[in-house]
Design a protein that fits this description.
Length: about 210
């Protein structure tokens, strides 16, 4: 091989070696999105700063996780309303319900995710694992929550979940047979509201 050919071959090796070095540096760099999948390039929401209403929702569910009903109640506007498959509440009834549920569900485990909010509306996904006191049955409820806000507080809170799934777990065979009927849903609502009224009667701060 001529001297010129040797020079060309040597130059090619150097180029290949340089590319290899660049690859190694890039692969092992702590800033590389290969070794850091949570970087902004791969996950733009990972380092997203929460706005005021998202912080409010986080505060609410973090308090729920530790049964801090006082902080939960402080997250609501005085004119707040709450509605789910068992309750339809307004004003002081809302924090009263959470205090009652925290009291009877001391072993309840709560996890939440998917918190998103803007100036007017918000949403979150949360799940609860607990023992239904009336039957002793284990329940895993899966809920999607939506919110509206006023003056930095929760104005409306709507929880949606499958009543049939919930009643099948909490009420056993009765729920499996009748969980799809308006009759059973009405019975559950009347009993839940009745229990709350009795609770409020014993706690004048919610009257």
């Amino acid at each position: 091989m001529s001297d010129f050919g040797h020079q060309i071959l040597d130059f090619s090796y150097r180029i290949s070696d340089l590319k290899f070095q660049q690859f190694v540096i890039r692969f092992y760099s702590p800033k590389s999105d290969i070794t850091n999948p949570k970087s902004d390039d791969r996950n733009p929401k990972a380092n997203k700063k929460m706005n005021t209403n998202e912080k409010l929702i986080h505060t609410f569910y973090e308090a729920f996780k530790v049964k801090d009903f006082k902080t939960m109640g402080e997250c609501y506007h005085p004119e707040a309303t709450f509605k789910d498959e068992a309750f339809d509440l307004k004003g002081k009834e809302v924090p009263a319900m959470w205090r009652m549920l925290c009291g009877v569900g001391a072993s309840t485990v709560v996890e939440f995710s998917g918190v998103e909010a803007d100036e007017n509306t918000g949403k979150a996904h949360w799940e609860a694992w607990y023992t239904f006191s009336q039957s002793g049955n284990k329940v895993h409820n899966v809920i999607d929550a939506t919110f509206t806000f006023k003056d930095g507080k929760i104005l409306t809170h709507r929880d949606k979940f499958s009543f049939y799934r919930w009643s099948s777990q909490s009420l056993g065979m009765i729920g499996k047979l009748l969980g799809w009927t308006p009759f059973l849903k009405k019975q559950v609502r009347e009993r839940a509201m009745g229990n709350l009224k009795k609770f409020i009667a014993k706690h004048p701060e919610y009257q």
